[in-house]
Structure prediction request, 339 residues.
Amino acid sequence: MAEALLVEAAEEAGAVEAAPASGGRPFWRRLRARRSTLVAAVIVGLLVVVALAAPLLSAIEGQDPTTYHASLVDSATGGVPLGSFGGISGQHWLGVEPLTGRDLFARVVYGARVSLGVALAATVLQVVIGTGVGLAAGLGNRYVDQALSRVTDVVVALPVMVIALGALAVVPAGFPRPVLIAVVVGLIGWSGISKIVRAQTLSLKSRDHVAAARLSGWNSWQIAKRELLPALAAPVITYAVLLFPANIVVEAALSFLGVGIKPPTPSWGQMLSDADTWYQAAPTYLLIPALLLFVTVLALTVLGEGVRTALDPRAESRLRIGTGRKKEQKKEQKKEAGA
Prediction:
């Protein structure tokens, strides 16, 4: 279901019919013209900086994400943090984790590194596989196209969460969990972008410049590299930006279900899973990762919408034309009502 919604969103965004390249300067100008996109870009940039600078930020606070502080939790109440708002203090900026007393700020910033890193790696893998399969299907003969299209249809029909749960449950615990999650999500989530790339490739290869390149003796790889990939950049980037926040949610969901990131490695989804039994006694332990996850996904979604509009200015033109027509219709209705 989520895969189908992403494909539909990308198609509505004009991703299936790639706009002609318009240069870097117009793209950045259109991107800066939307305040919501700028705000989202600033938020995403700050999150990336926090993730990259997690060791430095933890060192500034003077804490680390794995050290237990038994003296900061009340053993008589089962491990509820001592103090107000989950034990927030000058030494622990966001309080401490219930039961263990581990510093919550350190775990949040390291969790950002894990959540964003896993989602980014999965997105890159999906883009590489999907683009490769889509190009091969679009440029191949009828039998190659049919075979790859059927494989793609099978992958589309796979229940992503069920497959991920099964795969993550049987892999040995010694395998690096973030790498495993990125690989599993990437291997079962490339079908949407493959369909988009195949459809666009079929449209592009019938154009004159591609036919001329084929007549000049270029092979399929040369045609794909020099003629198709530049034209496919806009739809691929659009879909990838839409896919990135979805992968963050998938990673959080897997960790929430207990088959994702394992302790002591911090993850926002893992924190939400652990907070399930502490939301009444220590609400900040639930609210902080939930709020960060919500803000991250919202900012990435808004940024993706801005990138889509900047890459395909015709989408905004269509929106303006539609809005203008509605205004004209309302004016006509008012005139008729007055008459």
